[in-house]
Protein: HTH-type transcriptional regulatory protein TyrR
Amino acid sequence: MQNVEQDLKLEAALALLERQSLEAVEVIDTRGEVIGVLTRQEVESAAERKERLARSNQRTLAAGPDGPPDTATDLLAEVPVQRVLDALHDGVYITDALGVTVAINQAYERITGLKRSDVLGRHMQELVRRGYISKSVSLEVIRDGKPVTLVQSLHDGRKILVSGLPMHARDGALSHVVTSVRDITELLRAKHAQEQLRQLHSLHETYSVNAGTDEQALELVTSEATAACFALAERVAATDVKVLIQGETGTGKTLLARYLHEHSERSAGVFLELNCAALPEGLLEAELFGYAPGAFTGANARGKQGLLDVANGGTLFLDEIGDLPLSLQAKLLKVVEEQRFMPVGGTELRRTNLRLLTASHHDLAARVREGRFREDLYYRLSVVPITLPPLRERRGEVIPLLRHYLGHFCQRHARVRHFDPEVLELLASHQWPGNIRELINLVERLVVTTDQTLITTDMLPAECLGPGGLAAPSAAATIPAGVRENHATLTQCTQALERELIHRALERHATTRAAASSLGINQSTLVKKMQKYAIRRQR
Ligand SMILES: Nc1ncnc2c1ncn2[C@@H]1O[C@H](COP(=O)(O)OP(=O)(O)OP(=O)(O)O)[C@@H](O)[C@H]1O
Structure:
């Protein structure tokens, strides 16, 4: 027997064994103390392993970084398993085929708080019995013979993802169960935050009225009739008083609400709009007040923020407030009075700091009288009422609006168009039942559907030329004398009116096609009617 220093090269030990025909060498440390004995067989097989390792290293290097995977076992042969396990970020727990713990790594100790000494050599059943763990994935893998993954809660509330995999021996029998453990608390928290962000983003997208991108509103057209409304809005904008805007559809109620927001100290905050007539009661409540986690079947498990939350610091504009169901009116009253509300299915009141603006095309006072709107809420919401007159009562705005939107749509659709002065004259006296929205739609339609630069009266739809328009003959002028004296029939009267209207259309338009279009009928119908009434074109 010969002493070999612990760090002596393997080749030296081999040479020593060969040279001196020894069967074993003693291993000594640097202080000369014997720390073990190596037999010839052990030294030879270690040398053989090292040579194999060197060979496979060469193969791997030759094959590059993506070299053949069969070299991995050889490469790892010299690395202590425990060190590999401890280098992992995820926890690792290994049991044998019976469920007895054979190894855990440092990450497992860190994540679960269990110590190696608590578990090594112990059966999983015992650990469950002692309450170290609530459920054993390893035992499930042993029982089912297949991988198992589940999320477990630790006593401090953290969540861990546990995945157990069976490992088999060469003969196919189960040899070990390797379980990895990942702390997913942060991941779930991040996912929750991301979900909240997504919800918030979608609420903003759906309900925010973005001033910056709405080119249409860049230029506000006012007349004497509306200047007073905007002046009043400007005066009260800086305060947080509730403003109730009334007016027919399309008169500019949303625009006025936005004007109030932009002239207020909340202008840096959001401006959200919700149309109370657009959603069924349940959905309206959820959108407005939000809901608590698991509030109802199908609800997002994490709950959802309502607009009252999202508009915090900004302005919430509730359009068509007259259509808010009575049950929600009671909830809204609490918001108005206390700036607090209860999410659907919630148990705690939430605070919000927002400015509430409302609008309605209904006569809200009449709704109160009919018992369809709460009186107390009505008075709270209408501290400052502003009523926008319909466009037919602000005639001075029609031509400026027509010119403004013509310029806007010509630019948007890259067209050059002008109004024939007769068109402006005709439209200035139109009734505009759809108010400014109707006007905007008409101008865009004319810009994109005509191919000539000049927009003439024959391009106008029949409703703009009908009763109330310049084309409508006065009753006195058209009703036959017999009717006035109560002798003529309704048919005679209708025919006389039709004849008169055709005459006028033909006088005003150069072609029968244009005259027919101004009357809202096709050319062949007009020609037939001309024959019926023996009407000839004058020019
Ligand atoms: N004074 C104005 N000058 C220029 N454009 C206007 C004016 N008032 C309203 N508009 C435009 O008219 C359109 C309709 O206005 P708005 O949506 O504010 O009407 P509304 O009364 O809220 O309608 P609804 O009752 O249907 O909600 C919008 O495109 C708006 O920009």
In short: DSSP finds 24 helices and 17 strands in the chain. The radius of gyration is 43 Å.
